[in-house]
Write a structure and sequence with these properties.
about 80% helix; about 190 residues; 2 domains; mainly alpha
Length: about 190
């Protein structure tokens, strides 16, 4: 039996062990038992001892059970993937999702956020582009605004044929706002 399967079996007893631990915490100091006879119950430690794994592995298995697909769980059970490999993969996905949520939804999702990012990009890229070929700033700004909008919609999973028209209109508004802020910051 794999460590994953042993951990799952031991985790089935978690509610019982946790209840026993809670009962021990509720006992009053003047209980029938002497202090030396009381046993402190550490739920995770007891579960890990039953499964023959570390308490960290129990935590990882709980995390995997909450988030992994049945297919992945089967691969872990068969030994094709280790508990740690899947746990690390889930953590990476969670970190990416957190960054996406923070940056994309909170910053880039607003016109102000897009204008700020666009303004910074133009500040740094315009001199480089001008060395290659003199291009009017408004075209550079519009192309960058369109690229950022496409990336934002693609990351957010909203890039469809239906959103293209709205995105083009939004990029014009963003371009106009960014051009004005670019002019103000460069003068």
């Amino acid at each position: 039996m794999s460590a994953y399967d042993r951990s799952l079996l031991a985790l089935k007893l978690k509610p019982l062990i946790a209840e026993k631990a809670k009962e021990n915490q509720i006992r009053k100091p003047k209980s029938v038992l002497q202090k030396s006879a009381e046993q402190k119950i550490d739920t995770r430690k007891n579960i890990s001892q039953m499964a023959g794994v570390s308490h960290d592995t129990i935590h990882k298995v709980e995390h995997i059970e909450e988030r992994a697909t049945d297919e992945v769980k089967g691969k872990i059970s068969n030994g094709e993937i280790s508990i740690n490999q899947e746990y690390q993969a889930i953590r990476r996905e969670e970190k990416i999702e957190a960054v996406k949520e923070k940056f994309v939804d909170e910053e880039m999702g607003t016109i102000i956020g897009m204008v700020l990012v666009l303004n910074l990009l133009v500040q740094f890229l315009k001199p480089l582009i001008d060395k290659i070929k003199k291009v009017p700033t408004r075209y550079v700004v519009w192309v960058l605004a369109l690229a950022l909008s496409v990336i934002y919609k693609w990351i957010d999973g909203e890039f469809t044929v239906e959103t293209i028209f709205v995105m083009l209109i939004n990029t014009i508004v963003i371009t106009l706002a960014a051009m004005k802020s670019y002019e103000l910051t460069t003068k």
